[in-house]
Fold each of these.
Amino acid sequence: MEHESKQILENSGIKTTGSMVASSEDEAIEMSTNLGYPVVLKIVSPDVVHKTDSGGVKLNLTNEADVRKAYQDILSRFKTERIIGISVQKMAFPGLEAIIGVTRDASFGPVLMFGLGGIFAEVLKDVTFRVLPISEDSLDEMIEEIKGYSLLKGYRGQSIDISALKGLLIKVSNLAIMYPEIAELELNPVILYPSGYLAVDARMFVDFAPSKSALEVPKKKETLFQLFYPQSIAVLGATDSKGKLGYNVMWNLISHQFPGKLYPVNSHKETVLGLKAYKSILDVEDPVDTAIIIVPAGAAPKAIEDCCEKGVKFLVVESAGFAETGEAGRKIQSDIKELIIRKGCRLLGPNCSGIINTHHNMVQSIGVIDQLRKGNIGLIAQAGVYAAGILTGLRNVLDFGIIATIGNKMDVSEADILEFMGQDQNIEVIALYMEDVTSGQRFVDVAGQVSQKKPVIVLKAGRTEAGKKAVSSHTASMAGSDEINSAAFRQSGVIRARDNEHLFSLLRAFSKQPLPKGPGVLVVTYTGSLGVAATDMLYTSNLRLSELESYLKKRIASCLDDYLNIQNPVDCSFSMNPEQVKKIIEIGVQSKDVHSLIVIVQGEMLDSYVDTLTGINYMGKPVLCCVACKEFMMEHVIRMEQKGIPVYSTPEMAAEVLGEMHRYSLQHHKIRIKSLDRFLEDNSFTIANRKVRLRLLTQRDMDLWMEFVNSCSPRSLWLRFLSPFSATPEIAQRFCNINPDEEVAVAAEITEEGRKKLIAIARLITCQPRDEVEYAVIVTDSWQQQKLGRMLSKACLNLAKHLDVRVVNAETIQENFPIVRVLNHFHFKIESKERNMILMSLELK
Ligand code: ADP
Ligand code: MG
């Protein structure tokens, strides 16, 4: 009940309106006098959940008479309910009402909900969820994500105390993490103020039976490398009777030229498909990395036991007939689980279609699979049939690296495979097709880490309301399983696809094209109306049309018929032809404001565009093609796709996909900047009793940067830039607005009389090959000869190591003694000297 819940909250340092309960009118008066008027009286009864609805809340009582009247009135309304007493609390000042709750999800464990109170939450459902525990960044996003955020930022001219709100959210989260018996917890409302907050109502449901996810034992860290790249495979249930699954698996392994050893196991055969067969896996003399099991479910436990005895670490159970079929199958499955835990091996499936790894020429599928091209996509699918089904058609336009089917995922889960694919260099984009997420919290952790490195796209079936359970709190009722899925996906930075079509559209672009480095898009079209459709969707997807420099516009105009006016979208009209488009694109990609391109071409002429479009140098900018009704010229679409340009039927889809790529790229930058900043913060140091803070130089530093340049003598600037150098706003823009994937600029900052000031700047610029950087540093004159250059360089070299840089190069002139001394100090070697230039380099281990 409210008073008990508030007591628990108070003990955890959460501010509430108190938990006093009066059992008589006189006691209520005494409490009110002690608290000071105005006060609030509320019914306390285990039978009343929504107190206001039944007249159990009396607000703003300003004197003794009010309190007496309210007390009697409440008692008179609850004749049949059990009454514990009447709660007496201080009337809180008005503020912004919010709702904060925790509920437990079957797969993700405790989840936190936040939203604004009243109609915002209940009618508009303007609430957001996060899986706990929650990071600081996630907390910020959560608060900023609700539609009512503008009310938090500026409510009646006053903003809400966001840091107090964050503190409260963390306390509520910690409470839920610390006490798994709290099944649901809700503060509704909490009143938020310009300074602080107050919880005026609280409710808690306790359940001492531990939830399923709390029982999951975290998996120990071990690599699944051998599962995906085995040197030897035994197939239990291999056969050469055509049409049987045990035949298909063997046929696939052999015809795709699996490079390791193959051991068919079949007690009735001497050979299978020309290979020596074994009566039992125990007869195989050499070690076996992986065993594929395709015997009937009833015989599986014995087969698995033999494999364990043989010392096989990885089992792929492709047979069906387990938990998916009913009680008997469930029993076999749980016996097997117990067995593999005892023996310490890992199992994929059962009821799956194994693994395809084109980079290892390994196809374990139960369906016959033809030739595959090697690719950079990792696909994790629950059902084997799904994986095989999409392969048949999609292998024309998508190139897979690894396809893993997880079936009943008794042991190896989507999170385990995701983690492996995250580390596999052959995989650059990962797609997941899932019906349920069993690895819950671990999935959020793993996906969060992997999506920082490569895009992860998820299609999760089951978006309907059907999954919602009968629950008591608002929090739980708003936490239909799909809201939690969405929250978990957002939190871990994965991209959620709407449906299969959307998934494949995203995959085609993410796997073939580079990410855009900005929002500007150049659209080239043969018809204005498709250009308009693309434009609309660009703006909806947080992109925009590029603004071309006027000299480029003039050059494009010369490619167009006179009557056409040049603007973006560039409308070439129906006479558009491949050579013309090539010229326009080659001019367009030179624009600083063109970050990506959409080319809309005539379907009937697609054939003539393929070689031209795929032969253009797009200067690292992504290009997507749109062909209305492409379904009818698949031959040319496939040719274009295989040469690396994705083709969409509608300009809207092309624009939407581009928007998703841009969003991922922004998110990726944000995370990278944060992690670089954290690293630099840890490498900050003290010189001459002054704290020197290291951080990334950003666009916000333009003024500080100009000041810094002006504080350097012309000689220092000349030594650094090897030409006269002055700080103009344009140059400041160029030097501060940095793409963190290409260049890291480290600012050394001190605080002087309360003002921040830059005293040195160092740069690590990525060059080809990608694991080499160019290093340069400049220290302002008044800080020279104090070892600042050395300290800063030490931090930068640490950073380079942290970023897996192999070689650091530095080029300077010989007169730049301070720098040459610093480089010598760190054992840079002289690579070349030419006139007075000197190139030094350092190999990092
Ligand atoms: P219930 O949710 O069970 O109907 P609440 O305790 O939340 O009851 O009270 C209903 C509403 O009354 C709250 O949403 C809040 O607006 C207001 N209220 C409740 N307690 C106080 C209080 N101590 N000070 C100010 N307003 C309150
Ligand atoms: Mg309430």
Amino acid sequence: MSSVNNSRGNWSSKLGFVLAAAGSAIGLGNIWGFPTQTGLNGGAVFVFVYLICVLIVGIPVMVAEFTIGRAARNDPVGSFKALVPGSAWKYVGVLGVVTGLVILSYYSVVAGWTLKYLWRTLTEGATPHSAAQIAEQFESFTAGGIGPLFFHLVFMALTIWVVTGGIEGGIEKATTVLMPVLFGLLLLLVLRSVTLPGAAEGVSFYLKPDFGKISGDVVLAAMGQAFFSLSLGMGAMITYGSYLPQKEDLFSSAVYVSLSDLLIAFLAGFAIFPALFTVPGLRPDQGPSLIFLVLPNIFSQIPLGQIFGAAFYLLLAIAALTSSISLLEVVVAYFIDQKGWPRRRAALVVGSAAFVLGIPSAFSQGYLPLFAGFLEQADFLFGKVALMVGGLLICLFVGYRWGIAAAVEEIRRSNPRFRWRSVWAVLVRFVCPLAIAVLLVDRILGLFRS
Ligand code: PHE
């Protein structure tokens, strides 16, 4: 067994691991999802509530996932099997693997849209278009069938290529190069945005909370966003933790990863809202179209818009890639560890399956009426409900079945002076499960309300 596990691959350093896990966390969820949710949920107040959710739910659950993975050194299914042999807990891992496959299938479709927009910005430049033309372009592209399918294919192929390279040579190498590039591009955009004439209004929308706007819905939206954005609840962090050498500290890693994720989401909002408020007639509560409709509009109206526009879509595509490789890795790790497949075969077969599964999503924006709304429904069921269920079960597993004592022993292997035991235990056993359960019930009731 141990010889099998030694050949699984490892991160070469703690920095490599933190960058890869941050790469998983930082994705469309940060740069697309976070500003969209902030715009819809009252601006600064959402940013504030989100911060609280990351601190009291996000970080503790991430520590739990890293700990499970490193203690068991296995894929999500194998991890539960190894820690409590012969129990039904392994189905939490199965749920994670299935969730990863489905999220990957539609994530790659949306990531494909970002490639298309990168291509379009580079080739067509920032020719001024009216808002109506931009909206029409977006609709005719996403509803077009073949275009979205082609870019979905290109994106999936890139993902497969990186994962085929393995842990150190593929994922770690790609993320260590891509993450700093992403950070640099984002800073550039923030600078451009806040120096535009008239940016102050957007800055104040984003930073001055109106606490009168806090509501149950805002809190629930923030929590759901935190889960997706931190890649929690489906074993991505269990899988990444399983390649972490025993000497590296789990707790500080989780803190670094969560805070980088938070920082990038925060900067993404900073790049978008100040610019948005400088264009008359644009509103922050556009919903999901914010990135594809509002931004091209902004880019077509600001100096050097083509360069900033291309930088933005490149950034988005990079962020999406470092996340999609983690989605694929979860399923690939399952086939390597549980079924003994070679990595290459696992990456190819699973990636192709995710491509096929993504076809209805690629056709879901109007091309084939049969698939209308497919992407949104898959995202609701898997990107929201399934992640919550997984996260809840992971807390219950660590809090009550495997046990806080065993988990803390694993954490102390690399950090003998770990001082957060009691705080973490209270969060994992009571606060997080309760908060997630409330969110879940709300999501499910929401189904009947709409
Ligand atoms: N966290 C990624 C994002 O923000 C998405 C993701 C979710 C990746 C779950 C892996 C697991 O885009």
